[in-house]
Amino acid sequence: MEMELKDIGNTPLLELATLSVNGNRVFSKCEYLNPSGSHKDRTYLNIINKLEKAGVLKPGMTLIDCSTGNGGAALAWIGRLKGYGVKIFMPEGMTEERKTQIRTYGADIVETPKESFLTGAVLQAKAYLSENSSEEFYYLDQSNSLLNKDSWRCCGKEIVKQLSAQNIVPDFFVCSIGTGGTFSGIAEVLKQTYSGIKTIALEVSNSAPLFAQRNNLAFNHRSHNLMGLGAGVLSANTDSGLVDEIRVIDDVDAWARMKHFIASEKIPIGPTCGANLLMCDEIVQAHKCKSIVTLFFDSSWKYASRWDGFYPEYSEVRHVAGRNL
């Protein structure tokens, strides 16, 4: 049975028994169970609904945005159901599964040169928009539209409700940041509800602008294999005031942690979820009797064609094949 827009959200909050050691309890919001297989369904449904309500979007328009894959698939699926054309600007070298998914939903993909990664995709999308009628095309700009962050307040409220049903008060919220909307929207709600919670944001070590800013370091974007994180810019949706601590995660380690988790738990999560698990591992080893909340962003099937973690288009990315898991 084909899923509908109403199937977005209300995802399970799963307790991760194998991580719950030293009296700690770890819970993950299973966003990979959204219809297109990622958390981005929430983002685009909210953005489009709010722009429709404001009279900005009209049926038949073509919606444009930039993505490494998850956002593009979510927008393509929602756009098809709502009657919009969709055009996704995507850096070359992304997984075949995500490109196929986007095209299956009827959207067009414009692959942009790898050298500029997402920044190049953004520039090309804006150039395309400047050459075409604003009455027919609209650039959603998920990275800078604060409707992105707004999308995640609802998820934060779901987490509060699910924790309250079990009489749990969380001590930590752990979440990797790409655009930052997911982290910021949820963290805002959790901080309003739980005065004692500590929020930990994660960046990939090869591209960590917030970590560099906090530690007075020079920032240099380098290639990595955690697509969806580390675009090389600090998005407007990353509210640094909500970040109690910023940590960096190695991309190779995140892939290894994902694979270990899938093998032991049979839960098909993607590599950025492995980044969240690494931080949860650290917390449960360093503390006792704490409650930790994190997210599973997307699904492992989206990475099958790059299962060794190697993106040859991005030569700085390290190969993870043969690593002990």
Give the gist of this structure.
The protein has two domains: 5-34 and 151-306, Rossmann fold (3-Layer(aba) Sandwich); 40-139, Rossmann fold. It has ten helices and ten strands. The protein has helices at 40-53, 70-82, 96-104, 117-130, 147-151, 153-164, 181-193, 209-214, 251-265, 271-286; strands at residues 13-15, 25-30, 62-66, 85-91, 108-112, 137-139, 172-176, 198-204, 245-249, 291-296.
Largest sheet: 6 strands, mixed
- Average pLDDT figure: 94
Which shape, going by the Cα principal axes?
A: globular
Distance between the termini: 37 Å
Low-confidence stretches: 317-325
Q: How many separate helices? A: 10
- Helices and strands, in order, run as EEHEHEHEHEHHEHEHEHHE
Structural class: alpha/beta
- The radius of gyration computed from the alpha-carbon positions, rounded to a whole number of angstroms, is 19 Å
Count of strand segments = 10
Number of domains: 2
Q: Could you name the CATH class of the largest domain?
A: Alpha Beta
